[in-house]
Design goal:
The protein contains six helices and 26 strands. By secondary structure, the protein is of the alpha+beta class. The strands form four sheets. Strands 14-11-12-13-26-25-24-18-22 form a nine-stranded antiparallel sheet.
Length: about 375
Amino acid sequence: MRFTLSSSTLGSKLGTLAKVINSKNSLSILDCFLFEVGNGVLTLTTSDNSNMMNCLIPLYECEGEGKFCLTSRFILNAMKDLPEQPLTFEVDQDMNNIRIQYQGGAFKLAAQNADEYPRMRMLEGNYTETSLTAGALAANIQRTLFATANDELRIVMNGIFFDLREDSMNIVASDGHKMVRNMIMTSKTESCASFILPKKPAALLRSVLSLDDETPVSIKFDTNNAEIHFPDGMMLCRLIEGRYPNYASVIPNDNPNLVSIDRKGLLNALRRVLHFASESTQLIKIRMTQNNMELNAQDIDFSTEAREDVVCEYGGVPMTIGFKGSVLIDILNNLSGDEVVIELGDPSRAGVIRPAEQPEGEDVLMLIMPMLISE
């Protein structure tokens, strides 16, 4: 068998798929990439026994069909410093030895038996199917992933919750201190369904999807697994089992005090002030007055404090509320746009932060829980 393809395309796909491979595997074959050649296309596959991802690469030339496995460390090192050029793979009849020719040189690698590579079953029987554009899915994962938890007791909080409803699709993540809820009004289903996508496959999807791609992504899922078809590839993954908390009940419906403020200006001020806050609490006191936000931080142990005023639009009641500075910075970092609107109720109620200009067909909301403060 002999085939030719682009070195940069192969290197890019291998780099993405390598993120699936665990540092330690129970099966040595899982340290490999599976190469399958057929119909003028190379299919690259990696798996960690819970997640499997493959990508398709069109071939310049192809003679014969077959499959083999290459150890990830060797092929990644071989591709690392190669400039863009055609690569020709020559595979012997037994699929045991691989010779890779490039301009001015060649590599020779030993292949492993592709029949030993584990396969995950495609979904069959009863499953739910929905779709979303690649750009919308990438943007929502990117906006939501930071809010997932690392909780060994509440495993369901460690993933992204996809809540499919008759009027919208809600994509939610929370760690108990902050929450993100993305409502996509353009995605609807005939019957309600939901699943929890673990962080690893979510991050893998974000790495292969383009924010500017309007190609539909098909998502099929049952109670245990999901099958996601995206441009030039597919992913199978195990889902987190369990019941996600009622996120809607946490969102305040009557925060009447609205703050309109420049996102980057507030972000930079928070970064400056946070250096002077207590390392253990990272408490930032926010004092709201007419068209002014005053940020205060203090560390009694080191006798340090900082205060900074940020101009804003605010006509609500004077109020002092406390938030964890690092959480507030994370939220602002993961919102887009020049301006945000912060909805406040009272010092004991969660604050709601939205972009002033919402993405088309979506409603993005981020929530931050307050901290106890003493005047």
